[in-house]
Amino acid sequence: MKLDLMGNNIGDAKVVLLLVLLVCSLCSGRVCAVDVHASIKNMLGNGNMMSIHCQSKDNDLGNQTVSDGSEFGWDFSPNVWGTTLFYCDLDWKNVSDFYFDAYAFARDSVRCKTLCSWLVSGEGMYGFNEGTGLWEFMYNWPS
Ligand SMILES: *[C@@H]1O[C@H](CO)[C@@H](O)[C@H](O)[C@H]1NC(C)=O
Ligand SMILES: *[C@@H]1O[C@H](CO)[C@@H](O)[C@H](O)[C@H]1NC(C)=O
């Protein structure tokens, strides 16, 4: 058995490296990459506008103004490390600087397998659960 400087078995390390390379090449070839569509819809009513600013570590989607009845959406592929996170800052007439996670892999890899849809309403935010096919009340506005 050969050991490297860290004391790891070099044979095992080679196998792990090979597996990582295999997974990466499959994913970059889009075989195992799953595209997710995220969308956030303004259902506030009464002509209320909202502004929303979402970002991840690598992408800043900008500050978007969304009119009553419209939605803002984007597509992404969760990374193979399971660390994908899109967080948003939302403002509307009654609420300012409300932070929420639009997509967090640990919470959403099953709940939002391909669709991560949100409804912004006067009482709070609803999220669509693809696993159950139900809209769930996810966030209360701060009082
Ligand atoms: C977006 O920009 C407007 C105008 O500058 C600002 O009032 C609002 O707070 C911003 N919204 C977010 C979510 O950053
Ligand atoms: C927003 O705030 C106003 C004034 O406090 C209140 O009358 C109204 O019901 C609120 N709107 C919603 C949708 O909660």
Automatic annotation (TrEMBL):
<dbReference type="GO" id="GO:0005576">
    <property type="term" value="C:extracellular region"/>
</dbReference>
<comment type="similarity">
    <text>Belongs to the plant self-incompatibility (S1) protein family.</text>
</comment>
<keyword id="KW-0732">Signal</keyword>
<dbReference type="GO" id="GO:0060320">
    <property type="term" value="P:rejection of self pollen"/>
</dbReference>
<protein>
    <recommendedName>
        <fullName>S-protein homolog</fullName>
    </recommendedName>
</protein>
<keyword id="KW-0964">Secreted</keyword>
<dbReference type="InterPro" id="IPR010264">
    <property type="entry name" value="Self-incomp_S1"/>
</dbReference>
<keyword id="KW-0713">Self-incompatibility</keyword>
<dbReference type="Pfam" id="PF05938">
    <property type="entry name" value="Self-incomp_S1"/>
</dbReference>
<feature type="signal peptide">
    <location>
        <begin position="1"/>
        <end position="33"/>
    </location>
</feature>
